[in-house]
């Protein structure tokens, strides 16, 4: 039988550990709308992540859409073209014009040095992404935001559990948004969250994710249905119990890749993020021009062996039809994002990946 090694594989706790949660849901018949597991997961995540307030969502994309709505962001928002398309789609869903700014070559995060030149009287916010879990230059971004009175909403879909010297990276900016999709380091099958600084903002976001309802008969805003169900919240509670072990395994795999790919001509591993606590969510390599074959050829050859890396993020978002007409989408404006997008390959990384498979992948890469 042909074996398939995917870029990621969800970690699932033993099935029997989930049964008691299901029994409890069946027993109390509260399936959604802020039930007991939902409340418990919010509490436990606040503790685990070291944040004060969290609002759970049905997925990360709806959380992004709602974060923008909660802060009444409008006009133009500066963002990165080097991300998953959900980042800028959330702007279009709010009738906001994305303004793409290039990324830094060393981190592939939004380059603060290029933000100011893109600010216009219509700019109301910046939406950076902690790409692959590597924290943005949060201080430089906040300084610009303070100078120009802009909001900052971090797409932190990749940054669950990441900490800098002072604690969680999720405390930066006005809001941070997480994804708990099946492919993420912490998953609830589908899910997401907004981290917010105070109880008042949490209350507003909780209203917006429940159609804008305040009480039984009052609706104060055109909110959406973004609520996480009890089933998904229960999955989250169970996953949390196994998370530290999963991070430790990810770290081992990350180190194994770095050791084995060190010195392979034309292969550049993005540097370990240098933050106090990383989450080892992805293992992106750049296939440089001095590698014997092009990135896409390497991708095909690995696939022939049953290994499926992914070209996250190719093409840049600015190339998709709904974005490519924007002035900020011109290729000349985004040289680093385009170059990285043509070279990047995210190698398989998930807790159950065996080191022998890492050996094999690295051998295949080294011997081309
Ligand atoms: N912002 C950023 C920066 C994001 O990266 C994302 C999501 C979002 C916002 C939006 O958050 P959500 O609304 O999704 O919560 C995947 C994910 O669907 C997406 O969540 C993620 N980013 C993106 C980077 O990756 P695809 O199209 O690559 O997924 P897919 O189905 O091809 O899965 C990749 C591999 O994972 C498969 O080859 C096999 C494995 N897999 C996948 C699933 C779904 C499994 O083994 N089991 C599974 O259940 O987008």
Give a short synopsis of this structure.
The chain has 368 residues and is α/β, with parallel strands linked by helices. 35% of the residues lie in helices and 15% in strands.
Uncertain spans, ≥5 residues at pLDDT below 50? none
Largest sheet: 7 strands, mixed
| First-to-last CA distance | 25 Å
* Average pLDDT number: 97
Oligomer: single chain
What is the fourth-level CATH superfamily of the largest domain?
Type I PLP-dependent aspartate aminotransferase-like (Major domain)
**Strand segment count:** 16
- In the CATH classification, which architecture of the largest domain applies? 3-Layer(aba) Sandwich
- What is the element string, with H for helices and E for strands? EHHEHEHEEHEEEEEHEEHEEHEHEH
Cofactors, ions and other ligands in the entry = ligand T4K
